[in-house]
Structures are given as structure tokens and as C-alpha cells.
Amino acid sequence: MNPPEAFPAEGGCDCRYVRYRMETPPLFVHCCHCRWCQRETGTAFALNALIESDRVTVLAGEPELIDTPSLSGLGQKIARCPRCRIALWSHYGGAGPVLRFVRVGTLDNPDLLAPDIHIYTASKQPWVVIPPGVSAVAEYYDRSQYWPPESLARWQAVLPQIKAYRATLPRIN
Fold it and tell me: pLDDT tens digits, residue range 98-115?
């Protein structure tokens, strides 16, 4: 897990129009190697810090939400600076606006958040080497097996909001 004394932590886009603050440590940090993340970022993986949206404060500017497709079929909304177009976070279809997947590289000090797990390693680039002892799974995973108890408790606290959001979504056949 990541050091709680490092929070709050600020970040933003390249042009500094949009600035934000993560008020607490994230729930968990994913290093995602799926082909969708590779294509959307133009690189080998995406490093996302999962955090409740109400724990992220926008300090300046307002990101623009861009609808993009996703493997689940539910899509995602990528929050981008309207000026420099840097992606700051995403809201994925399953949790919608309740959770933010903050792009770790947009933090002023991205060294704060190492990945807690590498996911979708079945499609990782062959030259990416995952360090020994770091959690890694071929696809997705069961939260209860990897998340610390505090993060699981926070997840349970927002689960009613996530379920309410999901109830508003059209059914995909």
C-alpha cells in the first residue's frame, strides 16, 4: 500500500489549467496491461489510482468528460483538460461517477503511488518485466484477495452508490 502521510497529494495537467487534490490515499493502484489501455494511452500500460470521487477536489479549471468505448460495453468517461487535452482520470462504466481512476502520472509527485497489482498481464508487452513479489494476474481479480481491509471497508461504503448508478444503466444483451 501507499504511504498515508503523503496525502493529500496534488496533481494536474501539463498546462496547469486543471489542478486537483487527492485528499486521501487511493483504494488501490492498478497497472493495467490490457490492449484497450495500451491503445488509449499509446503506451504499454496505464497506471490508475482508484479513489472515491468525493475524495478528489478540483482546485482549478474544469476537466471535460469525453465518452469513449470500453471492453465491457459500458464505456468510460475520460476527464481531460480542455486546453492541453491531458487525461487526468476516468470514470469507468461499472462504477460511473462514484469512482475516479486517477492517472498516477498526473500527480505532482507520481513516485508516491507504485502499483499494488498488475492486471491483464496476459496481454502485456513481452518486454515489460514485472518485479518479483509484486501481485500480478492474467486478467482481473477478486478484490477480497488483494485489497487491504481499510480499502475493502471504503468500497463497502460506496457500494450502495455504485449499485444505484448501475440501476440507471441500460441493459446490454
Answer: 999 999 999 999 999 999
